[in-house]
Amino acid sequence: MSIGLKTAPQSPLVDTSRRITREWLQAFLVGGALSVLVDLSSDVTGTLAVGHGGTGRASLTAHDLLVGAGTSAVGLIAPGASGTILTSNGPTADPSFQAAPTSGIDQLTGDVTAGPGSGSQAATLAASGVTAGTYGDATHVAQITVDAKGRVTAASDVAISGGGASWIPVSLGVEPLTFVSDGAGHAVLVAFA
Question: Is-contact 33 24, C-beta < 8 A?
């Protein structure tokens, strides 16, 4: 189908036979400011082809998506059902609306646990095997084991032994320090006030 001018635009650059004048051609070739308005509703007949900047279609369906088809008329993709998503079907096929995937992480196991279930799930740290509490006191120190992930995996109280030694308060002029003998003639710092 061809597209042609039904009537000549009102311009001294187009003669009454709808032929382009030498002045128009010269202005076009030299790059001068030339503006010829074409009214698509009255000056153009037929469907504007893709090669001329059109869609190749006389009408479009409401809410459809346009899909390129080379030099052929654009394709149309009807909207999918509510909740579907537009999915690529590869480089040689048109995309299509498909159900949203339901797969994904529905359960966590290991150091962090959650689920099973869908949607939002509360995550919980896996138990480390250590009894919650405070370790160490005036006569015990806490002995802890830490694994490569930084988790405390064992904790216990170990008695502070001094082989019957007495507490020796010492002042160095700054803070009083407390040492205890380890039973082998060595003084061990155990507290400072």
Answer: no
